[in-house]
Every structure is written in structure tokens, then in C-alpha cells.
Amino acid sequence: MLAIIKHLLPAQKRKKHVKHHPSLPYEEMPQFWKSLAEDASDSARMLRWIILTACRYGEARYMDQDREVKADLWTVPAGRMKAELNTACR
To answer: 89 - beta bridge partners?
Structure first.
């Protein structure tokens, strides 16, 4: 029966092999955080923001503080999210 169904359904797209980066061991996080805090660059500030909010790079990169942050609440517009749903982060 499965052989018959295979011919009726469209071919599935194969995903490329994804290689994930290894995570930072939690024992090293305090020193890493300290090094980020000592770095005054925009990229270090954004990386701290990404770590604290668990948002994606694109959400942080294109954040518009004037429009999206109200009363300490950051609302990411749906069009910029992977799931395209509004999400709020405090």
C-alpha cells in the first residue's frame, strides 16, 4: 500500500545537513559574561541582549526601540519572527 501512496504524493524536499555550534559550558559563562560587559561595542551589547531574551539575531538586529519598546515591554512584530506571531519580552 505504501508503494502506491508514494506515487500519489509530491516528493519531499531534503533538508541540508545542519551542523550546530557547540554550546558554552556553563562553568565558563561568568567569565564570558564579564568579558562581554567590559566590551563597549554594539555587537557585545547585542549579544548580551540576545542571551538575556533568548531572541533570534534578526529580531534583535532590527529592533526599533522607539516603536517596539513600551513600558519595559518589547513586542516583536509578527513579520520579523520565524513563527510570524507577535511576542512580547520583558
So the answer is: 74
Instruction: Give the model confidence (pLDDT) of 66-88 as tens digits.
Output: 888 888 888 888 777 776 555 55
**How many angstroms separate the CA atoms of 34 and 29, rounded?**
8
Distance between CA 12 and CA 46 in Å, rounded? 37
Instruction: Name the 3-class secondary structure at 6.
Output: helix
Q: How far is CA 61 from the centre of its chain?
A: 10
End-to-end CA distance of the chain: 52
3-class secondary-structure state, position 76: strand
- Over residues 7-34, the pLDDT tens digits come to 777 777 777 788 888 999 999 999 999 9
* Grid coordinates given for 70: 513600551
Q: What is the pTM of this model?
A: 0.64
- Nearest CA to 72 out of 85, 90, 51 is that of 90
Cross-strand bridge partners of residue 87: 76
